[in-house]
Every structure is written in structure tokens, then in C-alpha cells.
Design a protein that fits this description.
12 helices, globular, seven-stranded mixed beta sheet, alpha/beta, 13 strands
Length: 362
């Protein structure tokens, strides 16, 4: 792996050291974080209620779970909270303890890592480049017959930015049940989708009991430092196990308070969606007209590009961008993606224009 391919969106200190560029001067197109920053409602209330840290959080997180329930239009009894979605991925791996798991890839590496730490074996179901990384459920159904305890799906997917629609997900849950497979769906990026309601699996909670849906606040709500995440499931056995085994006070008081406000900030949510939906369409259209890159339709707040110019690879594009203080993601470290794929998230339009101008000039 080249040194560039190892850079994650959170690695600004490493990039600063490697390239001699102050991290404050880097526009981070690799972190996938909302460029609008924190919800104003959260800022205002955290600033005026800082003394909340002098008390323990509510052990049951009743108000927080009710706020999430109202936001998701789901009964709070189906909701558990955690120290970020990564913590919830770890909890699921520990509690479900899959002996054999199937992961749709290319995708986020943390799933494989956590399942491996719990002693499980991981296989990948490859989303094929020649099919534009679009899932064809019939092929997945055949793979599930091999006997997997757990199926992991990121929807919309990182790094492809593709999505599986709700009705397809319902069919996947039904087929998984026939094979004794539990499904974990990571919806970290679902709020960015142009048609979120036709993609999310949360409304399927009452119909299917063999899945859990994970979400966090790091990306859409631009709050990775809060470490707040939540999961939705109607599986009563799993809910009981989590309530019994999960560490108490897993969410700190500031995150608990922030969560009760951010889900109420409709103005922030609408402004984010308007910006993202405009940039998804605009950016895809620009690259679609180029003979240098092939874009894949984005449902998340980032776009995957294949480099078509023979003399360019992902390291070269990364290098050209970072020298201008623009940090994109070299995707060569993702399973099934070679050295001709890059990904960048949508920032403010003027920043996106600057990056696209550079990339299209290479």
C-alpha cells in the first residue's frame, strides 16, 4: 500500500507531517463531514448548559431516545444508543459473535476488523465494477445459502455512494431469515440521500426482526467528536442482551444533551439536504461530461470516480490535490478497488469548484 492510500479523513496530523502543510490550511474532502458544521441549535444549547457535565447522564437515556424516536418515526423501545456508530459496530460483533459473516464490498474496513476481533471469519460479496457497483439481490441470495450468521450492508455504501432501496432491503431481510442470517445495516450516510425515505430500512422494523440499523452523528451533523450513535431493531432478544451487557453511561452528558437538540433542528436539516442534493447532481453532471473520469451516481455526501486517463492513478491524483491543500481519498486500500479510484465528499460549492478544476486539468 502506498503511503497516500493509508490516509484516512481523520489523518490531518499525519498529512501535515508528511507534506509540511498546516492542517488548518487543508480542505478535507476525505472526512465526509457536513461542511455546514454544527447545528446552530446545538451550539446555542451546549454553550448555555455546560454545567450538564456535573451530573451523570440518565442511565436509560429516556429523553434522548424519545428525541431519536420522534426523528426516525419509530417507537423509542426499539432504540439503543452508543458511543458513536463504531462503538455500536463493536458491540454487535461482540454480542452476535458471528462465526461466519458476509460483507458487501468494497466498503468500510471497520466491519471486518471488529468481526475478526470477535473471532469471526469474514467473506466478501463483491459489488462488481462492470455493474457500476450496483447490487443484484438474486446473486446475494445465492451467496447467503452458504450459511452465514451475519450479513453486513452499508447503505448508502462507502466508498461507492450507491444505495439499496427499501423494498429490495425488505426482500434481503426475508431471504436472510430463511438462511438463519442476521443483518446489520449501517445507515451513516442515509440522511444525505436525495430520497432518504425510499432507502432507509428503519420503517421495516415492525415487519422484520432479523436486522439492526446503525446511525451516527459524525457525518450529517458534523459532530465526530461527540461520539454519539444509535441503533434501531425490533429483535427483543438482542435488545435485552444489549441492555444487560452494554457498559452504563456509554454516552456522555454533552452528547446526550446535543442529541436532544440536533434532531429537532429542522432548518439545519433542510439546509444540509438542499446543499448536498444540489452538489450531488451538479458534480455528477460535470464529471459525466469528462473523458478523464467515470463518476458513479452519488446517494451519499461523496462521489466515487474511476480515473480513465492511462498515465494517471489514484496516488498521482491524491498527490496533485494535496499539494494544493485539497485532501481527497485514495481508494486503493478498499477491497476490490485498485489504483484508479478516488473519492471526495461535497464541501461548499466554491471549494468543490476549486477541486474539480484541478482534477479536470490533470
Amino acid at each position: 500500500m502506498s503511503k497516500q492510500s493509508a490516509f484516512h479523513g481523520s489523518d490531518l496530523e499525519r498529512v501535515e507531517s508528511e507534506y509540511g502543510i498546516k492542517k488548518e490550511d487543508i480542505i478535507n474532502f476525505a472526512a465526509n463531514v457536513n461542511p455546514l458544521g454544527l447545528s446552530p441549535l446545538v451550539k446555542e444549547n451546549l454553550a448555555t448548559q455546560i454545567d450538564v457535565i456535573t451530573s451523570y447522564p440518565d442511565r436509560e437515556y429516556t429523553t434522548l431516545r424519545q428525541s431519536i424516536g420522534d426523528y426516525c418515526k419509530i417507537d423509542p423501545k426499539h432504540i439503543v444508543v452508543g458511543n458513536g456508530s463504531t462503538d455500536l459496530i463493536s458491540i454487535m460483533a461482540q454480542f452476535i459473535k458471528p462465526k461466519k459473516a458476509l460483507i458487501l464490498g468494497p466498503t468500510y474496513s471497520e466491519y471486518e476488523r471488529e468481526i475478526g476481533l470477535s473471532g469471526g471469519q469474514v467473506d466478501y460479496f463483491e459489488l462488481k465494477e462492470e455493474e457500476d457497483f450496483v447490487l443484484h439481490p438474486a446473486s446475494l441470495f445465492t451467496a447467503l445459502k452458504k450459511g452465514y450468521d451475519l450479513l453486513v450492508i452499508c447503505n448508502p455504501n462507502n466508498p461507492t455512494s450507491g444505495a439499496i432501496r427499501t423494498e429490495e432491503m425488505s426482500a434481503i431481510f426475508a431471504e436472510a431469515k430463511k438462511n438463519g442470517t442476521f443483518v446489520m445495516v449501517d445507515e451513516t450516510y442515509v440522511e444525505f440521500a436525495p430520497d432518504m425515505e425510499s432507502i432507509t430500512c428503519v420503517p421495516l422494523c415492525e415487519k422484520h426482526h432479523n436486522f439492526i440499523c446503525l446511525r451516527g452523528v459524525s457525518k450529517f451533523y458534523a459532530a465526530p467528536g461527540l461520539r454519539l450513535g444509535y441503533a434501531v431493531t425490533s429483535n427483543t432478544d438482542l435488545l435485552s442482551l444489549i441492555h444487560e451487557k452494554q457498559n452504563p453511561w456509554c454516552v456522555n452528558s454533552l452528547a446526550e444533551l446535543a442529541g436532544t437538540y440536533m434532531y429537532r433542528d429542522k432548518d439545519f436539516q433542510e439546509r444540509t439536504k438542499a446543499l448536498m442534493h444540489t452538489e450531488q447532481k451538479r458534480t455528477y453532471g460535470i464529471f459525466e461530461k469528462s473523458d478523464l473520469y467515470k463518476p458513479y451516481k452519488p446517494y451519499a455526501n461523496f462521489i466515487l470516480l474511476k480515473i480513465l486517463k492511462p498515465e494517471l492513478d489514484s496516488s498521482a491524483v491524491f498527490e496533485a490535490a494535496i499539494r494544493k491543500g485539497l485532501m481527497i481519498r485514495n481508494c486503493s486500500s478498499f477491497p476490490f478497488l485498485g489504483d484508479r479510484f478516488v473519492r471526495f465528499c461535497f464541501m461548499k460549492p466554491e471549494d468543490n469548484d476549486r477541486l474539480m478544476e484541478l482534477m479536470l486539468s490533470l
